[in-house]
Each structure stands twice: as structure tokens, then as C-alpha cells.
Specification:
8 helices; elongated; about 425 residues; disordered N terminus; 23 strands; seven-stranded antiparallel beta sheet; alpha+beta; five-stranded antiparallel beta sheet; about 25% helix
């Protein structure tokens, strides 16, 4: 496991913060919550948000307005931490979802200051093992039903909200998984689809976020997956195929999407039949369709897609800048392991990106065909890159190094090679 340390939506001390809408939930659970950039929580499609307020020794602090709010989403997975500066420390909100009791959203408030605080929530349906203060909010006007809990210095309050799928019954909040356990579990899930450790440290958390969003929202109709996964109004067919491929790589069943996959493939082939060049993301989407069809047992259909793709014009060059939607996964994978239409795959097909020069890197379980994945590490010996690779799948996958070393190729399942040179991109 890569244990990616990167941050998503890291917000510094500023009165103007970047808008955020973190999707939290469980894998294909059919429910979700949205946490905004200041820690306000909205469950499913509910109108009323859960807001939080902190009473320190000086006054009530409203995270929605304070300039001292910072937020992190570690490694890109759906565990969101929002920090509020108060005298002598921070009040820290941590939010994540668990599958227990049909689905709960866990909210933790840690008092990382030297004095006791109180925290108020603007909903009365909070699940808690503690009794709220009988006095309710004092010195601040909050919505009817708001509840207040004391939090001693150095301690953590844990409460929860029941999802629309919750089964009810008595909930022992102290036995629920911790945020650290959820982070490790989510990393295991998203990195099952492969991962890379490269010079650009922003890519892994972005990819992890997109994959975890896909897992959470896969319990909904695809029209509700959001613009980063299926485009505005769910009309981006290329993004849909790329998202579906990521779900397959993470072990999800996608048979119920098969009819739309076939329709999209036929439309893409018709549209690009006479094109002088096809877009790089269309090329990757057709490869994704092959992998999806193979995964659901439609091996002949996967072969038909490849045969049709071989009759199309070549693909366009990759853009220099990383996409911000689901295309970023295909963009990075294409640089690492590029499937060839004629069979086999290329590692570093287009040369070594300038940002990677002299920097060791590694990638794991990158799709090379519907049946194969490739893992390799790259180390530098002076100005020459050396690769140590391993393939999975039926024996005989042919690897080459494209522009990085046009003379090298191998069909061995494992091995190492010092490449003759490189092309900096």
C-alpha cells in the first residue's frame, strides 16, 4: 500500500476559502453526505445542513465565518478534517462514514486546546452516548433543537447521524471504527485499481478522491454521479466509460451498465470512423470498454472492440497538463503503461516527463490489457533510467519502452533492464 500522504482541499488560514463539496459515504451504499469547506454537513438530499459552533473561553466561534478554518482530506479518501483556531489551540472536526447499522456518518470533535470547550450542533437527531447539556445553547441564537456538549481539553466527542438506510437499534459509538481505520480501508479499496508514486504529489490524492467518489456514488443511477465522473448532466460518455473501468478495477460489479457500454462504444466508433486523428481520451475509453466487457465475461465483444479500434486513425498526443476529472487516471496510466492496439504494452512510451527526470518512481497494477497488469519501478543510473518490472496475467505479454528506448522489448513476466536513453517531455 502506498500510504499516500498527500492532501486534498487543504485550506490555509484565510477569510476566503476555496469552495469544497466532499462526498462521504460507504461503498455503493445508496446514501451519501456532503461536507463543505467549513465542515457543514448535508445528508443525502436533505434541505437542512448540520452546522457546528464552538464555545471557547472568549466567545462562540462560528466555523462558517471564522478566518481561521483549515481543512484537509488526507490521501484523498473520504475522511475530512476541519480545524478551527480558538484561544490556546484548535477545535478539530473529523467526519467519515461507516457501514455499521446500515450506514452512519460519524462526527468527532477533538479539543486540542488547553482549556475546556463546548460544541453545539444544529440538529436534535444526533446520536450520542453522552447526554447534551440540559441548558442548551447559551449566549448564541441557534435553530430550535440545537444541542450542546462539553468537551474537556485533550478529549474527543464522538456523535453520529443516521443515514436514510440506517437500520435503527442501539448504537455503541465507541465500538465504531476510527478515522484512521477508515483511511486505511479506503486506501486498500482505491489502490486495488493500481497506484503510482511519481514526482507530482498532487496526482495520487486527486485520483484517490475520484475513485472513492465513484465507489460511494455507484449505489445511485449514473445520472447522479457528478460532473467529474460523468460530465455535466451525465452526458460525457468518455468519462462514463473511464469511471466504469475504475469501478471494475476496484472489484465492483457493473453488469447492469452493459447495455449503455455497448451503445457508447458503437457511437464512438461511428463518430471517429473517418477522423484523421482520434482524441487520446477516446482511445483510452475504447480500451476501458474492452476491459469492462472482458470483466463481465463478454470476451468476444471485447475482441470486437479492439478489432474496430485497430481500423481507426492514431490517437492524439496527451495534453501537458493533468485533467481534473476522471480522465486524470487514464492520463497518468497512459504515460506509465500504454496498451498497444497491435498487442502488448509500452512502459514510458512517450519518454520521461521532465518533472520525473532524476527522480525514482514506481507504479503498481496498471492495466496493460483486459487480462494483464504491469508493475515496475524506475531508478536512475546517472542519466539512464533502469526499470524493474513484473506483469500479471497469461504469460507472453510483450513489453517495450517506446520512445524511451526503441531497441528494448521483453516477453518475460519479470525482469530488469537499463534503458539506452530517454526522451524528456
Amino acid at each position: 500500500m502506498s500510504n499516500t500522504p498527500g492532501l486534498i482541499s487543504s485550506i490555509s488560514l484565510s477569510a476566503t476559502v476555496r469552495p469544497a463539496a466532499h462526498v462521504l459515504g460507504i461503498r455503493a451504499g445508496g446514501w451519501h453526505a456532503i461536507v463543505n469547506e467549513r465542515g457543514a454537513i448535508r445528508m443525502d438530499e436533505e434541505v437542512d445542513a448540520l452546522d457546528w459552533y464552538v464555545a471557547a473561553d472568549d466567545r462562540w466561534h462560528n466555523p462558517a465565518k471564522e478566518p481561521s478554518v483549515r481543512q484537509t482530506r488526507r490521501a484523498g479518501v473520504p475522511v475530512v478534517e476541519t480545524r478551527l483556531r480558538i484561544p490556546s489551540g484548535d477545535a478539530v472536526q473529523r467526519v467519515y462514514a461507516v457501514a455499521d447499522h446500515g450506514g452512519l456518518l460519524v462526527i468527532e470533535i477533538s479539543n486540542e486546546s488547553t482549556l475546556p470547550i463546548a460544541v453545539a450542533f444544529t440538529r436534535s437527531d444526533i446520536l450520542s452516548s453522552r447526554q447534551p447539556s440540559p441548558l442548551g445553547p447559551q449566549g448564541i441564537d441557534l435553530p430550535t433543537g440545537s444541542v450542546v456538549f462539553p468537551v474537556a481539553h485533550g478529549s474527543t466527542l464522538r456523535v453520529a447521524l443516521a443515514s436514510s438506510r440506517a437500520t435503527g437499534g442501539t448504537v455503541n459509538l465507541e465500538q465504531l471504527p476510527s478515522g484512521e481505520q477508515l483511511q486505511r480501508g479506503w486506501l486498500n479499496s482505491v489502490e486495488r485499481a493500481g497506484y503510482a508514486i511519481v514526482a507530482d504529489k498532487s496526482l495520487s490524492p486527486l485520483i484517490n478522491r475520484l475513485r472513492s467518489d465513484a465507489l460511494v456514488l455507484s449505489g445511485y443511477h449514473e445520472s447522479e454521479w457528478g460532473s467529474e465522473l460523468v460530465g455535466e448532466d451525465a452526458t460525457d460518455d468518455v468519462a462514463f466509460l473511464l469511471t466504469l473501468h475504475e469501478l471494475v478495477r476496484m472489484g465492483e460489479k457493473v453488469n447492469h451498465h452493459l447495455e449503455r457500454v455497448v451503445d457508447i462504444v458503437e457511437a464512438l466508433l461511428r463518430k471517429n470512423k473517418k477522423s484523421a486523428v482520434i482524441e487520446w481520451d477516446v482511445e483510452r475509453a475504447l480500451f476501458a470498454a474492452q476491459c469492462i466487457l472482458w470483466a463481465v465475461g463478454e470476451h468476444r465483444a471485447a475482441g470486437d472492440v479492439l478489432a474496430s479500434q485497430q481500423r481507426l486513425a492514431h490517437a492524439s498526443a496527451l495534453p501537458n497538463a493533468a485533467p481534473k476529472d476522471i480522465r486524470v487516471v487514464a492520463w497518468l496510466d497512459e504515460q506509465l503503461v500504454s496498451p498497444r492496439r497491435e498487442g502488448g504494452a509500452s512502459v514510458l512510451r512517450y519518454g520521461v516527463p521532465r518533472m520525473w527526470l532524476g527522480v525514482n518512481m514506481e507504479c503498481h497494477r496498471v492495466a496493460a490489457s483486459p487480462e494483464h497488469t504491469v508493475s515496475y519501478g524506475m531508478r536512475w543510473h546517472g542519466e539512464k533510467p533502469a526499470v524493474l518490472w513484473e506483469t500479471s496475467g497469461p504469460f507472453g505479454l510483450r513489453l517495450d519502452a517506446g520512445a524511451t528506448d526503441e531497441s528494448w522489448h521483453s516477453v518475460e513476466a519479470t525482469g530488469d533492464a537499463l534503458l539506452a536513453g530517454f526522451v524528456a517531455r
